[in-house]
Amino acid sequence: MEAEIISQCRPPCGAPVTQLEPSPSWRGPVITGLSPENGPAAGGTSVAISGRNFTGATSLIFGANPATPFTVDSDSQITAVSPPQG
Hints:
By secondary structure, the chain is mainly β. It is about 0% helix and about 45% strand. The strands form three sheets. The protein has a four-stranded antiparallel beta sheet, with no helix packed on it. A two-stranded antiparallel ribbon has the order 1-2. The chain has a two-stranded antiparallel sheet with strand order 5-6. About 10% of the residues are buried.
């Protein structure tokens, strides 16, 4: 995948987060937004993930930790509960 870094930030509870803008030919999932953008390291926060190409997603990972449960609401939105980090 060819990508271009468009922003980088450090959330208060973890490692740096880099947002990439994939090349126009990329057909995989693309995340364009998170709401809320951060939460407690203990997890348990409901997170709406916006983007595209989410249909058929079978796993979702926050850092190195799988999010369970999560729901693919549409091709452009996933709702998940953040797992504990650390």
